[in-house]
Amino acid sequence: MPTHAELAGKLLVDAATFFRTLGSQNAALTEQMTENANVFEQMSALLTGNPQGNLEGTSHAELAGRLLKDAATFFRTLAEQNEPIREQMNENANVYEQIGDMVTADPLGILD
């Protein structure tokens, strides 16, 4: 069974892939989406490599939780603007928020 940190790490990489795809489809967004993707991938590596580590006094788990919640907010914004993907983006947002809470509270916990 994967830990909360492992699940969060996977979601961070999935979000990075999504950002890169979005950036590749819209030149105006390329730079920002690439930057987002890089941050999410770096955080995934930090979190999965050292779930209880910290960066400048803030735990990897807390930082990852914040990024997951940021992604959830982004997904909800996309959902509001795009009827065809609304349901899927809202579902993604819910998952990202839940895992964000769980990894922040207990990075080594196991999903029930």
Task: Give a nutshell description of this structure.
With 112 residues, the chain is mainly α. 75% of the residues lie in helices and 4% in strands. Helix 1 runs antiparallel to helix 2 (30-49), helix 1 (4-25) crosses helix 3 and helix 1 (4-25) runs antiparallel to helix 4 (86-105).
Structural overview:
Helix 2 (30-49) runs antiparallel to helix 3. The longest helix is centred in the first third of the chain and has 22 residues, at 4-25. The protein has a two-stranded antiparallel ribbon. The protein is mainly α and 112 residues long. The chain has helices at residues 4-25, 30-49, 60-81, 86-105, and strands at residues 54-55, 58-59. It is globular and about 35 Å long. It has four helices and two strands; from the N terminus they run ααββαα.
Task: Offer a few descriptive terms.
112 residues; mainly alpha; 4% strand; two-stranded antiparallel sheet; globular; 2 strands
Q: Main beta sheet, described?
A: 2 strands, antiparallel
Query: How many helices?
Result: 4
Quote the distance from N terminus to C terminus: 9 Å
Mean pLDDT metric = 96
Which class do the helix and strand fractions yield?
Answer: mainly alpha
- How much strand content do the residues show? under 5%
Q: Count the E strands.
A: 2
> H/E series, N to C?
HHEEHH
Radius of gyration: 14 Å
Helix content: over 70%
Give the neighbour order of strands across the main sheet.
1-2
Instruction: Name the poorly predicted regions.
Output: none
Shape assignment: globular
Topology:
Elements (H helix, E strand, L loop, with lengths): L3 H22 L4 H20 L4 E2 L2 E2 H22 L4 H20 L7
Antiparallel strand pairs: 1-2
Helix pairs in contact: 1-2, 1-3, 1-4, 2-3, 3-4
